[in-house]
Amino acid sequence: MSQYIEIKTLANIYPYQAKKIISKGTVKAILTTGTISPAAQTLFDQSGIIWVEKIPETRFMKSKAQDVELEN
Predict the structure, then answer these.
(1) Position 20 in a domain
(2) What domain range includes position 41?
(3) Half-sphere exposure for 50 (CA within 13 Å, toward CB)
(4) For strand 35-36 and strand 12-13, is the pairing parallel, antiparallel, or unpaired?
């Protein structure tokens, strides 16, 4: 099963959204232009999912989108 990085432009990620992401079982990291609530951060940490919040949208606009396979 391939793992991938999921990018979100939601204003905030709360536990409900975090649980949906975790349940996919294939997400290795989550990047968001918004914030991740402390409870959602804890869920990601417990699931071994790397997370980064508050990334400026301009960081995504300057590069071409690519599918990248992550190694375990």
Answers:
(1) yes
(2) 4-60
(3) 7
(4) parallel
What is the full DSSP assignment across 31-54? EESSEE-HHHHHHHHHHT-EEE--
Number of domains observed in the structure of the chain:
1
Please give the Cα distance from 65 to 42 (Å, whole number): 29
pTM for the whole structure: 0.75
pLDDT in tens, the chain (72 residues): 678 777 777 679 999 999 999 999 999 999 898 999 999 999 999 999 999 999 887 776 655 555 555 554
Tell me, what DSSP letter sits at residue 8? E
Q: Which residue has the tokens 């999912």?
A: 49
Pair of tokens at residue 20: 């949906």
